């Protein structure tokens, strides 16, 4: 290969940043103080496994990620809110926020305000940067189970075991209206245009509320509590997770069930859409998180590292990261396929995940070099492709490539020409690591941690 007129070269992307240790919050700053650990989450070092924050403050019922992807908030059974930096792994501060369990959290679209809903019947609004209490919303007669802030930042909705949904003016906390139901409210969510509100109840029904004219109708189909509801980013699909162990995808304007997703062995407690709208995550009492392909309802991956029920899941809007909060008192961060929509042919298989070993920068660099050398030696033809080929490759602990997945159409079309299909092997070891490989028409090979 090196006798060719052009020469593949390792990209500058080989430069490595901070390393996350497996236990607790041991965030090593051994290389660059200016880079964030989120780049590590994108790198595939936690392949189908996770990095964890240990809460030690009781069951984690709720988590929320800031719009800029830099901050995570968690709410626990003991009424505590903890604010974490995802740039450094640092616990920024802890709030003794409520006198009872915190069931729901939401962050405003501008990232300035955190809202918390609790079994103490209160909703509280906090300055996310300082932790100062801004307002307390009183009006519910029983536990506040769910809250949601409208995407336009004007409204806050809350659902309670007092069998009502309340809609508040977010800026001043004024109660604008009360929407009655016949059973406990377990979940609420606004549509992307802020004009529709969905609420799920203990009896399994889901109500769709049109906020402009007060009209509503009911979706039926679940045989257990509708624990979580979420709208897709394009506003066309509603997802619901239920105590009947299923997730349903609804064409809600027509009352039609598009897909019923089965696979969980316990109640589904939380659902969330990826930012690109291509995937849905569901957290369950069975201790797992499942990642589903939205268009087909196909199961792509199962994440299984929590030791107790997964109460809350949330995607980052800025990074390929899924966060989960559990009764095991941990928050886990999972790398997800990026972008999910560009994967070719074969989605990721269902995997019962085990935590991967966390490597030092030197070990990562060694694996990176081995990936480069293997591809460098196997490619023997002059490029005929006109656009860059992008692949995700998996390697074992010895740096041997064991799988290669094309991530754009051209990569799939030219996989034989660049001889990458030969690296695919049956099965994968318990621990493996992923790298991004880009082959450019100009004759440049870029290899970097995913």
Account of the protein in words:
The structure is a single chain. With 450 residues, the chain is mostly beta strands. Helix content is 6%, strand content 42%. The longest helix is centred in the C-terminal third of the chain and has 18 residues, at 361-378. The chain is globular and about 70 Å long. The protein starts with 18 loop residues before the first strand and ends with a strand.
Largest sheet: 4 strands, antiparallel
The percentage helix is under 10%
SS elements, strand count:
34
Shape: globular
Strands of the largest sheet, in order across it?
A: 3-30-29-28
The first-to-last residue Cα distance is: 25 Å
Strand content: 35-45%
Poorly predicted regions are: 1-50, 341-358
Number of helices: 3
Structural class by secondary-structure content: mainly beta
Indicate the radius of gyration in whole angstroms.
Answer: 23 Å
Give the overall average pLDDT.
80
């Amino acid at each position: 290969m090196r006798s060719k007129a052009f020469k593949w070269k390792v990209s500058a992307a080989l430069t490595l940043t901070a390393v996350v240790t497996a236990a607790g919050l041991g965030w090593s700053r051994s290389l660059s103080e200016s880079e964030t650990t989120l780049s590590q989450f994108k790198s595939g070092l936690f392949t189908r496994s996770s990095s964890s924050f240990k809460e030690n403050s009781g069951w984690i019922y709720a988590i929320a990620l800031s719009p800029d992807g830099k901050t995570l908030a968690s709410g626990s059974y003991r009424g505590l809110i903890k604010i974490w930096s995802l740039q450094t792994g640092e616990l920024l501060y802890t709030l003794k926020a409520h006198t009872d369990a915190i069931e729901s959290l939401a962050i405003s679209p501008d990232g300035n305000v955190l809202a918390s809903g609790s079994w103490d019947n209160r909703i509280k609004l906090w300055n996310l940067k300082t932790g100062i209490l801004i307002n307390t919303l009183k009006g519910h007669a029983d536990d506040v189970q769910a809250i949601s802030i409208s995407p336009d930042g004007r409204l806050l909705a809350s659902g309670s075991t007092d069998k009502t949904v309340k809609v508040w003016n977010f800026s001043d906390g004024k109660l604008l209206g009360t929407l009655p139901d016949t059973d406990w409210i377990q979940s609420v969510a606004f549509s992307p245009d802020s004009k529709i509100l969905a609420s799920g109840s203990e009896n399994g029904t889901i109500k769709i509320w049109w906020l402009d004219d007060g009209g509503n109708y009911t979706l039926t189909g679940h045989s257990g509590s509708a624990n979580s509801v979420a709208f897709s980013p394009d506003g066309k699909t509603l997802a619901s997770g239920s105590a009947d162990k299923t997730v349903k995808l609804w064409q809600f304007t027509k009352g039609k069930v598009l897909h019923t997703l089965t696979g969980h062995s316990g109640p589904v407690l939380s659902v969330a859409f990826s930012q690109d709208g291509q995937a849905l995550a569901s957290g369950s009492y069975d201790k797992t998180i499942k990642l589903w392909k939205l268009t087909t309802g196909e199961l792509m991956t199962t994440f299984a590292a929590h030791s107790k029920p997964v109460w809350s899941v949330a995607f980052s809007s800025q990074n390929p990261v899924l966060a989960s909060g559990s009764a095991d008192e941990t928050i886990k961060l999972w790398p997800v396929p990026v972008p999910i929509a560009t994967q070719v042919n074969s989605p990721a298989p269902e995997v019962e995940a085990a935590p991967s070993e966390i490597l030092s920068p030197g070990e990562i660099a060694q694996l990176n070099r081995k990936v480069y050398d293997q591809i460098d030696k196997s490619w023997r033809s002059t490029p005929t492709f006109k656009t860059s080929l992008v692949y995700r490759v998996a390697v074992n602990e010895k740096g041997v490539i064991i799988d290669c997945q094309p991530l754009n159409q051209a990569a799939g079309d030219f996989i034989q020409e660049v001889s990458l299909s030969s690296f695919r092997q049956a099965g994968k070891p318990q621990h493996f690591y992923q790298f991004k490989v880009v082959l450019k028409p100009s004759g440049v090979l870029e290899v970097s941690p995913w």
